[in-house]
Amino acid sequence: MTVSPSALPRSVPVGNDGISVRGLRVEALIGIYEHERLGPQPLQVDLELELLHSRCCTSDQIEDAVDYGAVVATVRRLALLNRRLLLEAFAQDVADNLLHDFPLHTVAVSVCKPGIFDAADCVGVSIRRRRRDSTTAATRA
């Protein structure tokens, strides 16, 4: 027997809710060496976005959700406009912008450059950042 979703008992959140974006391919002018700055280079970005109990899980309303397309567009825009030398600084810019523009509690950003070393698929960095004022994220989500 199938029970309609509205008749099911509501679960209790355990921890925070998350959104993942993996393998986002962008191009950016980035690097410390002159030859790296002659033109855009491919980067791969992975994101782990944490929300404080997103209302969309129970409301099923897009207005209560984080727009994945807007998240991806933000990262693409930052890559296109990037003038940072280091992957670490670019990752920080991504984290800061996502925390500012979306109702997120924490973000983890991994950025890697493929093809840097023959013996490695990709070389990169990972950072995790938290919103300074967590209550703002809870009221916006």
From TrEMBL:
Ranges for the Dihydroneopterin aldolase/epimerase domain? 19-129
Give the reaction(s) catalysed.
7,8-dihydroneopterin = 6-hydroxymethyl-7,8-dihydropterin + glycolaldehyde
**GO biological process, any:** folic acid biosynthetic process
Q: Which GO terms describe its molecular function?
A: dihydroneopterin aldolase activity
**What is any one of the record's Gene Ontology cellular component terms?**
cytoplasm
Which Enzyme Commission number(s) are on file for it?
4.1.2.25
Q: Which Pfam families match?
A: FolB
Q: Which UniProt keywords apply?
A: Folate biosynthesis, Lyase
What pathway is this protein said to act in by its record?
Cofactor biosynthesis; tetrahydrofolate biosynthesis; 2-amino-4-hydroxy-6-hydroxymethyl-7,8-dihydropteridine diphosphate from 7,8-dihydroneopterin triphosphate: step 3/4
Q: Which InterPro entries match?
A: Dihydroneopterin_aldolase, FolB_dom, GTP-CH-I_C/QueF
Q: Family, per the entry?
A: Belongs to the DHNA family.
Functionally, this protein is described as follows: Catalyzes the conversion of 7,8-dihydroneopterin to 6-hydroxymethyl-7,8-dihydropterin.
Protein name (database record): 7,8-dihydroneopterin aldolase
Q: Which organism is it from?
A: Thauera terpenica 58Eu
